[in-house]
Amino acid sequence: MFKKLKIKLKNSVDPEKFKGDHISTYGFISYFNLKKSYMILPKEIFRLNPDRIVWSEVQPKANLPHRDHVLKTSLNIYIEPRNAVVRFYKVKQGGEPYSPDPKIFYPNLFYHKDLDLCDQFIAEPYDSYLLDVSNVHEVTGVENLNRTMIQLSWYSRSFDQVLNQIGEEYVY
Ligand SMILES: [Fe+2]
Q: Which of 36, 38, 111, 142 has the most CB atoms in a 10 Å sphere around its CB?
């Protein structure tokens, strides 16, 4: 569901320097280009061929249990994680997703009653985690400040495929 990684940034990150142009906003998550990524990301990361590398900012709202719409796997390097709790769940037998707005989205939200908690983590600044975002997850306990992270994502490669490529020496 998730793995903490030993991937370390080459430098500390001043958001002013690395946050680029706005790409898109979905609800309370905004994506920006990551400027000068080669200055901070170690070269092992580029070998993983992510489909997308962004600077991501999330407003301080609890994120209900959900599966991501298009992303399968995400490597998050948390810059300002704000003590948020990231939880991963298993869907109970018979549990079905529901839609926040049947006109726009296919169903991807879940009620807590249909879920069993599997595991959770609270990231420290500069921690990196590989996440299976095709699995049900949520973010809670957020402080009243935006969370920021560098996010590498894969649209079709599974968590296990990316994890295998990362190799054991980079996994806790
Ligand atoms: Fe998500």
A: 142
- Residues in the chain, pLDDT under 70: 104-105
With vertex at residue 9, the alpha carbon angle to CA 6 and CA 14, rounded to the nearest 5 degrees, is: 145
Residue type, 23: I
Domain that holds residue 24: 2-95+109-153+163-170
How many structural domains is the chain composed of? 1
Sequence letter at residue 8: K
Whether residue 158 is contained in a domain is answered as: no
Residue 117 lies inside a defined structural domain of this protein: yes
Q: Quote the radius of gyration of the chain (alpha carbons, Å).
A: 16
pTM score, whole prediction = 0.93
CA of 31 to the centre of ligand 1 (A): 13
Report the distance separating Cα 38 and Cα 146, nearest Å.
25
Single-letter amino acid code for the residue at 121: F
Task: Give the pLDDT confidence of 92-133 residue by residue, as tens digits.
Answer: 999 999 987 777 667 899 999 999 999 999 999 999 999 999
Distance (Å) from CA 63 to ligand 1 centroid: 8
